[in-house]
Amino acid sequence: MLTKRSFLTGFAATPLALASTPIVAQGKLSVVATTGMIADAARQVGGDLVEVKALMGPGVDPHSYRQTRSDIVAMARADVVLWHGLYLEAQMQDFLHELSERGTVTAVAESLPRALLLAHEDYADKFDPHVWMVPDLWVHVVENVRAALAAAQPQQADAFSANAATHLNALKDLAAYAAKIMATVPAERRVLITAHDAFNYFGEAYGFDVMGIQGISTESEAGLRRIADLVDVLVDRDIAAVFVESSVSDRNIRALIEGAAARGHKVQIGGELFSDAMGEPGSYVGTYIGMIDHNATVIARALGGDTPKAGMKGLLNG
């Protein structure tokens, strides 16, 4: 049985720790989400009925993130805790499973139909967690967020359902936009090379060959052999652009560019993509729709596709 002490392991029984017993919601639901993408879904579905805190901000890598003392207290006090699952928050997983004994903790991607998931290249019994890269997959997560909020506050279930329906319609528009501009990228240029394999679902959805220097998890190291192999791909397939990621060091991407240059092939950085984290809070790219609009627009434009200058909604910095 989970106790206050067990999920505050390693901390003294200070007044702050003792105050961590979950408080029954008086009005707004208190929601803690691990990633910015999940936090955005909770805000879209919950609207004015929720207060949402994201543990991981811009540029934070969820694969290696470990909960802090303040994170533990925030989750212990929250009415609802939402995490991704599918081994994304690998360093937090044991703690989150223990915390789930409270009954207010939901892994919002864990129950996606297995037929929709891609195998994890590093772990035979797990799946690639990066389902947010495709809006048609993210709708399942939004529905799970709606269900989690409704379970915590049943009297507001209708409001959560209405908000979710509005957001799901926006996701349909986003999916249609992404499919439209990706179709304009010439077939021979549909090769997406990034810092790590966060874009496999994207490639599956839009017909791109996706190659990451690191594996699905940023915990896996990129070896010299892998970089040399990708330099061969750049040269042999005459690829002119590679992409950095906001939450992963650009060191290995720079090594790729230098390796290609040493063989007389010029490669440029096509832009920075949001892979495991969104942009700054309060900005357009600090929302899920803005994040995917940015990624799709930047990728299509850099690889020769036809895109609006400022993206789907005219809100990107062209």
Automatic annotation (TrEMBL):
Short name of any one Pfam family annotated for the protein: ZnuA
Superkingdom assignment: Bacteria
Compartment list: Cell envelope
Gene3D superfamilies: Nitrogenase molybdenum iron protein domain
Major place of residence: other
GO cellular component, one term: cell envelope
Family: Belongs to the bacterial solute-binding protein 9 family.
PANTHER family: HIGH-AFFINITY ZINC UPTAKE SYSTEM PROTEIN ZNUA-RELATED, METAL-BINDING PROTEIN HI_0362-RELATED
Protein name from the UniProt record: Manganese/zinc/iron transport system substrate-binding protein
Taxonomic source organism: Antarctobacter heliothermus
